[in-house]
Fold:
Amino acid sequence: MPQPATNQWLEIADTFYSKTNFPNCLGAIDGKHIRCRNPRNSGSYYFNYKKYFSIILMAVVDANLSCVVIVVGGYGRESDSNVFKEYPFGKKLYSGICGGVHNIGQNFLNSYRPHRDVAVDEAMVKFKGRSTLKQYMKDKPVKRGYKLWMLCDSSGYNLKFEVYTGKKEGTVEAGLGGRVVLDLCKELENKNHVVYMDNFFSSNILFENLLTKKIYACGTVRANRKFLPTLTKDNQLQRGEYDWATSNKGLAFYKWKDRKAVHILSSLHSPDDKVFVNRKEKDGSTSKVPCPLALKEYNSNMNFVDNFDRLKKDYQCDRKSHKWYMRLFFHFIDCCVVNSFIIYKELDTEGKKLTNKNFRREVYTGLLSRKLVDVQSPSIVKKRTKSNIEISNHKPHVSKHLRLTESKHQPTEGSSRRCAMCSTKKKPQRTKWICSTCKVPLCIKKEKTCFQDYHTK
Structure:
């Protein structure tokens, strides 16, 4: 079956958007197991997880339920992701030629001007299903899932990312950490940025390479890396003491003794720059001990990726799925929302700024609420003055656009619940009447007008 051309893919995406209000969608994909007899001398290739022999039929359909891509003949034991990955259309998606993941990362870069300090680190997207991209990292809070290399700004903004898909071109990749840092920092060259990284990425060769591109670097380093000088032994250093050495190419290598020795490599700081940090003694008292400035700034600036993860996980789209691509899809949606929230915080907007939670509410309200209200009632929404009654945060949240519109707000009888207007912890008021549109309980009595006030004020 011939694959659609570029203009056909664009038409498919436009049809999806007009019918489902979902942008940049190329199709819906699923696979089915077709029962068959086990061919001779095939072993268990056709035996699937459903305990019978089969071949896999997979298809991609457009918004009109017409097949645009068909894959026939996959082994029954293979997962859907493996079958799709080997097909030419799947290879294009994995390699980024279709532009999905690549375009997201490019838009992140074009929408923000980074500060001086940035950080490179790895992040995990939780996934326990079957996928060749899944990684296992025992020391991470999320031990199983997809590994992503991320470059984040000091504000937490995700500038660039890369999904780790394993070794490239079937060979063991030498210098993986250095290659990742160089790829992520390609757009920062000749701009005097400072990149912070941990000991997985840092090396003497990498720092020298970054310095030639006018990118400074700082980070912890493993003591057994090549081309590092020999410093004072650990047992000859007291707590707070440190030894250092410099190269003729502008690098400084430190060994600082806390409870254990910490090794730092920097192309930015001078070995003479030091600060004092607080440390607890065995008797519970606090003392100040000297510390290299490079280590203090590393500890202050290395958490940029963690800050991004924290903002994402506060209200993330946590939807379980056995499909390998759905977890990444939800992750990238969260990335777009978090980056938008960071840009919003840095804009000089008038009035009180929204919190992370309320910002997400405004996003989905702006995308969905008006369309849903138009379906219920096509009447024009009248302009009203600011409401005199503010709905408390702990009560049911209904957007003002839906609450104050002229849609058909009718009371329906339901179970006894606390009124969303007049009920408090000290004086709970219960009612059996619920608004059919807003889905909130409201009093309808002679002495109370909660139902009317809720939809007019």
